Amino acid sequence: MPTSFQPHRSGDLHFLKRLNRSAILELVRRSPGLTRADIASQAQLTKATVGSGVQSLLKQGWLREGELQKSSGGRPGRALHLDEQRFAILGAEVGVHGLRLVACTLSGRILASHHERLSPSSPEVTAELLAGLLKTLQQSPALAGYHLLGLGVALPGPVAPNAPLLRVAPNLGWKDIRFLDLLRSHLPQLEGAWLMDNEAKSAAFGEFYFRTGQVPDSLIYVSAGTGIGSGMIEGNQPLLSRGFQGLAGEIGHTVLQPGGLYCHCGNRGCAETLVSGWSIRAALGVAEDEDLLEALRPRLHEEAVQLTLRRAGEALGTLLLNLHHTQNPSELVLGGSLVQLGASFLDPALSYFKAHQNRLLGSSQQVPLRVIDDSTFIAARGAAAQVLAHVIHGPSDLI
Amino acid sequence: MPTSFQPHRSGDLHFLKRLNRSAILELVRRSPGLTRADIASQAQLTKATVGSGVQSLLKQGWLREGELQKSSGGRPGRALHLDEQRFAILGAEVGVHGLRLVACTLSGRILASHHERLSPSSPEVTAELLAGLLKTLQQSPALAGYHLLGLGVALPGPVAPNAPLLRVAPNLGWKDIRFLDLLRSHLPQLEGAWLMDNEAKSAAFGEFYFRTGQVPDSLIYVSAGTGIGSGMIEGNQPLLSRGFQGLAGEIGHTVLQPGGLYCHCGNRGCAETLVSGWSIRAALGVAEDEDLLEALRPRLHEEAVQLTLRRAGEALGTLLLNLHHTQNPSELVLGGSLVQLGASFLDPALSYFKAHQNRLLGSSQQVPLRVIDDSTFIAARGAAAQVLAHVIHGPSDLI
DNA sequence: CCACTTAGTTTTATCTATTTACTAACTAGG
DNA sequence: CCTAGTTAGTAAATAGATAAAACTAAGTGG
Asked: Quick one: residue B345, left, alpha or beta (phi over 0 = left, psi -120 to 50 = alpha)?
C-alpha cells in the first residue's frame, strides 16, 4: 500500500500517455486557470499533445473549462480548472481521543465532515464504529452525485512501508493491526483505492499536495498531541518516506536528554518525556479521561503549569532545530492539539528555533514555520490527498 | 547541479526510449550477468524492446556480452555485463587534512588513486593543487584508452541544493565557494559532467549506487571525522536530498545536550561538541597540526583518553538512534577517520544503538550497521558515482 | 532423432507524439 | 471598417517508439 509511487523505471506507450495526462492534471491542480498553451510550455509538450490530453481529461470529468483569459495581443486562451463536481475522496483519522472523518473534492475542499469523541478502545470496535460513521457520511446530501475515488485512513503510530499494517499505536495500546481489513468487512461496497498511513505523514502529505501556487520543495509536518510525530514530503513527484520499519518521523523517540526520564518505549530521555500530551499530563497530574486543554485552561496562571509548558516548548524548539539540521525542509508546519496550549508553550519553541536556525550558515534566510490553529481535520484530509495522488500517479486507469 | 535527477513529469518518444535504455543499464549494473530475457521480465518490457536496447548499449560501449548461461530446458541466454574497458569517471575529495583522488570504472572499481596530505589552505590554492593532481591522474597508464565521463568533487560542508556552491566549510574556514569554477579554470580540457556535493552525501551515494545484488531500500552514511555529517539515499531512482539550504544531514549540529558546550556554529550542546575530531582534540589537548590517530595511539591506556572516547562513542550511539527514529534507513554505514580510534570509541556507540533500536516496535529486526575500516577513498569514489548516475539518468545523450 | 522448451531476432502492426497546416479570436493601427 | 499581426487551439499527415507475431537458434530429454 505504498503512498510513495515509485516512478516506473521503464514503460510502454500507454505508460507515456498516462504520464503526460498526469502531468497535465498536476499542473492544473497546482495552478488553477492555466490555459492549454501555458501547459504546453511548462510541461515541454507540444500544443497538439496537450490538446488531446486535455480533451480526454475534460471528458472523464477531471477538468472543466473556465473563463477566457485576457488577450495579450492574440487569441485569448481558455482557463482550465479541476472539475469539483464529479469526484470526491473519503479521509479518516483514528486519534487517541476521537475519530475524524472528511469527504473532500479534488482541490481538497471539504464537502462534509464529522468529529466523534471516543475513548481508546479495541481495533475491532473502533473499526466498526468508524465504518458506521463513514456510511453515514457517504449518504450526506453534500456528496450526492459524486463518484468516490477511495478512502484514506490516518493512524496514530508507525505504519509498515510496504503493507497496510499499523506496527504499533502506543497511546491506543494497539500492535500489528491490519486496520483496513477490519474496516473492509464492514464496508464491502466502498470501491476505489484504500490506503492507510501514519497521521503525521498523512497530514504532511495533505498540507503539501493541496497547496496551490508557489509550492515549497519539501515540507515537514510536526504533529504534537498525545505523542509527537512528524512526516516529511518532498519532490515534484511528491514522495513520502516511511523508512525501513515505518519509523521515519518518530521524532518523539529521538533522545534529547541522554540519561533522562524513562519513556513509554523503554528508552531514556526521549523527546516525548519532555514534550507530549502524556508527559504534560504526568507532570501536572491531569487524568487520562479529562480533556487536557480544558483541564489546564483554568490553571494557566499557576507557576508549575507555566514552567512545564515552557520546558515542553523549549524541547519542541530543540526538536525543530534538529529536524532543520537533519532534513532541512523548505517549510515546517506545526499542528496537533498541543498547539492550543497557546503562547506559554509555543513562544519558547518558536523563539528557540528562530534564534538558532541560522548559526551554522550565517545566513539570514528563515525557514517558514507555520502554526495550524485548528488541525482537527488536517490528517483526515491528508489521507484523502494520498488517495488522490495514488489515483493520479498510480496504476489506476481512471485517467 | 542536482544529483537528484527529477524524474521527468512528461515526455516524448525519445524520452521513453532513453528511460528504457537507462532501465536496462541499471538492471545490468545491479545484477551483472542478466540475460536479455531476465531483463525483459524484470523491467516489464518485451523481448524485442530489450533486444534493440541492448544492441545499442553494446555498440556504444556500455555493455559487453559474456558467457552463455546454463540452460534450463531450452536455449541458454547470454550473460550481459558492464563494459569496464570504455568509460571511466574521476572523483575527488577535498578533506580537512588532505586531497583524495580516484578514477574508477562503471562498476566502481578503482583504476587509479592518489592521496595527498595537505594542511587547510585557501580555496584557490587548493583548487590549483587538486587540478594538477587530477591532470597527473588522467595521464596515469591505468587510464589509457578510457573515455572520461566527468568529474565529481566531494567537499567538507553543506552544498546548496540547486547550484554548485559550497555554503560553508567550518573546518577549512571557507564560505560560499564556487569550487568547480575555481577548478575549471585550471582544467579547461576536461570534458563531461562536473558535479560537486557534500562528502557524506557523496559517500552515501557511492555506497548505495555501486552495490550489486540485494540492494537496500535506503542507506545513511555517517561520516565521523574532524566534523560529523551524514547523507541519506533512497529509492530505486536513487534520490539524495540536500535539503532547502543544503543542511540536510548536518547531524553534527543537532542538539544532544541542551545547554551544553558551545559549538563552533554558535549553538550549545551540538553533537559535535561531544563527538568529532575537533572536540576530541580539544578535550585531550592534541594540536591541530598533529595527526589525531598517531597522537592518541600511545595514549590509549590513559584514563582520560578512555573516558573521552567512551563519551564520544555514546554520543555517536545516540546520534545513530536519533537517525533511526527520524529517517529509519534500511542500512547504516559508518565511516570517517574516527572509526580508526577503535573499540574504546566504537563499542559504546554500536552497543547503545543495538540495545535501544528495537524498544519502540518491540521487534527483533536489526538495522544492519556496517563500519568501514578504511574510508580513505569512499567519498571520492562516491562523487564519481554521482557523475555516473547523472550521465545515466540525466539529460546526457551518451546512452 | 524428434518433440519440447527457452533465447533472441526479424517483420509487421499499433500507438503516441510531433510536424505542418489550418482555423479561431483577439489587438493595433491606418 | 478593414487589414496585418499575434496568440490559441484543432486537424491531418508523418515519424518513431514499443508490441505482437512469426521465425530462427540452441539447448534438454526421451
From this structure: alpha
Q: How far is B83 from chain A (nearest CA, A)?
A: 22
* pLDDT reported for residue A299: 95
| Option in A11, A44, A359 nearest B266 (CB) | A359
Chain B, window 348-387: residues with a beta carbon less than 8 angstroms from a chain A beta carbon? 356, 359-363, 365, 367
Query: What is the rounded average pLDDT of the residues A8-28?
Result: 87
Q: Give the DSSP per-residue string, B262-309.
A: BPTTS-BSBGGGTSSHHHHHHHHT--TTS-HHHHHGGGTTSHHHHHHH
Q: Output the pLDDT for position A178.
A: 98
Q: From the CA of B291, how many Å to the C1' of D23? A: 70
Report the 10 Å Cβ neighbour count for B20: 20
Inter-residue contact A118 to A129 (CB < 8 Å): yes
In sequence order, the 6+-apart residues with CB closer than 8 A to the CB of A80 are A28, A32, A33, A34, A35, A36, A39, A54, A63, A64, A65, A66
Which of B5, B6, B9, B228 is the best substitution to test chain A (most A C-beta atoms within 10 A)? B9
- Alpha carbon distance A294, A261 (integer Å): 26
Confidence (pLDDT) at A9: 57
- Whether the predicted pLDDT of A398 surpasses 90: no
Residue B73 pLDDT class (50, 70, 90 cuts) = confident
- Give pLDDT tens digits for A173-194: 999 999 999 999 999 999 999 9
- C-alpha B372: how far from chain center: 12
Give the global pTM. 0.95
Here the cell at position B321 is 538512534
d(CA B398, CA B396): 6
Mean of pLDDT over chain B: 94
DSSP 3-state of B327: coil
Restricting to B residues 245-304, those with a Cβ less than 8 Å away from any Cβ of A are 245-251, 253-258, 265-267
Domains of chain B: 13-82 (1.10.10.10), 87-204+378-393 (3.30.420.40), 213-371 (3.30.420.40)
DSSP at A365: P
Which bases along strand C come within 7 Å of a protein CB atom? 4-11, 14-21, 24-28
Q: Is A247's CB within 8 Å of B10's CB? A: no
Contact list in A for residue B16 (CB cut-off 8 A) is 11, 13, 15-16
Which residues of B spanning 45-104 put their CB closer than 7 angstroms to strand C?
Answer: 47-48, 51-52, 54-55, 72-78
C-alpha cell at B79: 550473460
